[in-house]
């Protein structure tokens, strides 16, 4: 692991396994609380040494890291697809996005500016002038999930370094290799020693140490709601940015391009085997086109190829562990026992779970109200846009939503009334580019990611007022 600029081992290791066949892929250091404390202490020292790290050098390092990744992009893709759930095609897409994230970070480092302030708006301050500028918070602590093991790390490391911070990353224990490869890129890029650490090990052992350490001035967390609540409780008075998942809806109106809506919903529901915080989980379809929509969606879902992740022909791979597949199976069984109907899928084989469409599921079930984080989607007929929005807003999440319609009045009504952080018109909640503000309301998190918005969270404004004689 990369600890304060040095590659170090630990007394103990743990295994990283391919979820497809449970094959041992690598042994990784099992860090201790003392390792984490050392990484944070060294990060603080490195930040102080590099407190005046010039913007042009930050840009140079970020761009050099992108060049290194581009030269080794197939290695990065193979690693993502081997340690995680993504197919090789999806993994290659993630590598491309991670490089874009770092490119944007380099660009935003150049645009990190303040503003002049008109102090003479206040009577008696006619002889004052000044401005504010933004300065880095210091040490950022980052905890990242398994489902995007490279790009979601880049979304924390890129903005942190662009702002001039040091950062300590605790990657998901099941997918630590991609984060270590990202550290490789920054070492090759000439990043000052100690400005980045990637500490591998148990979240239970390391997470609390990371978020509670007084030198850590900002915590950036992506993961589940329960863990997010613990992070918020333990962090104390410091900046916190959290993305905590969702249960995203899609609304399909009768005036929409139905074929486009079906294709988008299939992709949005089953891409990355449904392990996606903005994946489609609930679809509300106007009753006039409900039967036709369902028929077409079942047909397209059945055409998806489930199999070997490393095959270019595969559309859907396994879940991250068999335990997760068993959990998904239990949720589906619960929905069926309470009246739900399986239209397709509903079968498990080890860590694989077939893409599944459910209908007639009661609103009170767990699968309607919580985040399934698996390849399962529920479909419901509705009689109006207003009903669809009311049902969409019913859950305690609000990350993103989608609506399909050719009517601008309907589109903007949805934009105004859907309770979420982003509305995608004629697309599903699954659409995102890495520059846009990304985050949600209610239990979906605090603050926004997206490079510029992360940088704002990772910096503080300082006001300068000058009194002239």
Please characterize this protein's 3D structure.
The protein is of the alpha/beta class. 40% of the residues lie in helices and 23% in strands. It contains 15 helices and 24 strands. A 7-stranded mixed beta sheet has the order 14-17-18-13-12-20-21, with helices on both faces. A 6-stranded mixed beta sheet has the order 9-8-7-10-11-23, sandwiched between helices. Helix 2 (55-71) packs antiparallel against helix 4 (88-110) and helix 2 (55-71) crosses helix 6 (177-188). It starts with a strand and ends with a strand. The mean pLDDT is 97.
A few lines on this structure:
The chain contains 15 helices and 24 strands. With 469 residues, it is of the alpha/beta class. The protein is globular, with a radius of gyration of 23 Å.
Level-1 CATH class name of the largest domain: Alpha Beta
Summarize the amount of helix as a percent range.
25-40%
Q: Quick one: how many beta strands?
A: 24
CATH topology of the largest domain: Aldehyde Dehydrogenase, Chain A, domain 1
Task: List the strand order in the largest sheet.
Answer: 14-17-18-13-12-20-21
CATH superfamily of the largest domain: Aldehyde Dehydrogenase, Chain A, domain 1
How many domain units? 2
Sheet-strand content, in percent, reads 15-25%
Distance between the termini: 56 Å
Outline type? globular
Integer average pLDDT: 97
As a whole number of angstroms, the C-alpha radius of gyration is 23 Å
Low-confidence stretches: none
Structural class: alpha/beta
Indicate the CATH architecture of the largest domain.
Answer: 3-Layer(aba) Sandwich
Can you summarize the main beta sheet? 7 strands, mixed
The number of helical segments is 15
